[in-house]
Structure formats: C-alpha cells, structure tokens
Write a structure and sequence with these properties.
With 149 residues, the protein is an alpha+beta fold. It has 7 helices and 5 strands, in the order αααββαααββαβ. Keywords: Coiled coil, Cytoplasm, Elongation factor, Protein biosynthesis.
Length: 149
C-alpha cells in the first residue's frame, strides 16, 4: 500500500504526475529511492519515444553574467505554446543558459554530455529527459550562442 505522504514526497522531488508516482511506488513496493530510479528509467524511455515529434513552439532565453562579460542566447523548443509559457519550461531554459555560460560547450552534443553544474550526478541530457517526462512533450535545444569579452 502506498501512503499519501510517500506520493507527496515523490511528486515534490520529481514533479512527475501523481498517477505515475503512484505506479512507480507500487512497483518499488513503497521504496522512495527505488521509485525515483523507476521514474528516471521511464523518463528516458518516454524521452526516446517523444524525440521524433515536432517541437515548433518555444522561447528565446538569455543570460547575462553580472560582470557583463559573458552572455548567452538560447532557442529552446517544445511542442505546445502552453508548455513554452510555463514557469518550469522557462526555468529549464535559464538552467541551460547558466550551463552554457559556465561550461562553454562547442555544440549541443557536447552540452548533453556535460555534468549539470547544479547536480554533477546528472548530465545535461538527463536533466532534459526529466523535463520531457514531466511535460510529456519533446524538447529541443534548437541553437545557442555564448558571447565573452
């Protein structure tokens, strides 16, 4: 049996729907850490399925370092305007801009392989996959540029 407290904890930790959290907790027999791993695995599988879908909506995000010597401009795409306008999607764009400003990847492939600057146990690709699972939509980094004086 899955408790409401367990569901709440898993939902807050992952941002995944309550229904998916409940399924993961049942499969993990109530073990929160195991449920997180199950959701992570499902998220990767889901992201692979979504990758062929068109992502024609999105936002252009920017970041300017406080010293005003490093700046980033990023085009991040998703499938719907609803997701593009969401606070979570805009937070993802900001996180990606910070990553690009900090680590200066030459291209998207290199960016995906980098450890995420806020949690080095996760790659940027895994960060993206978690958002694909959260939104249920394909998300693409269309292009980015980093500027430095």
């Amino acid at each position: 049996m899955v408790s409401i407290d367990q569901l709440k904890q898993l939902r807050e930790a992952t941002g995944i729907s309550i229904a998916e959290c409940k399924k993961a907790l049942i499969e993990a027999k109530g073990d929160l850490e195991k449920a997180k791993e199950i959701l992570k695995k499902w998220g990767k599988e889901f992201a692979q399925k979504q990758s062929g879908r068109k992502a024609r909506e999105g936002i252009v995000a920017t970041y300017l370092h406080p010293n005003q010597k490093i700046g980033v401009i990023l085009e991040l795409n998703c499938e719907t305007d609803f997701v593009a306008k969401s606070e979570d999607f805009q937070n993802l764009a900001h996180e990606l801009c910070l990553q690009i400003a900090s680590m200066n990847p030459p291209d998207t492939d290199s960016l995906f392989l980098q450890p995420w600057i806020k949690d080095e146990t996760k790659t940027v690709k895994e960060l993206m996959e978690s958002y694909v699972a959260k939104f249920g939509e394909n998300i693409l980094i269309k292009k980015f540029n980093r500027y430095e004086i």
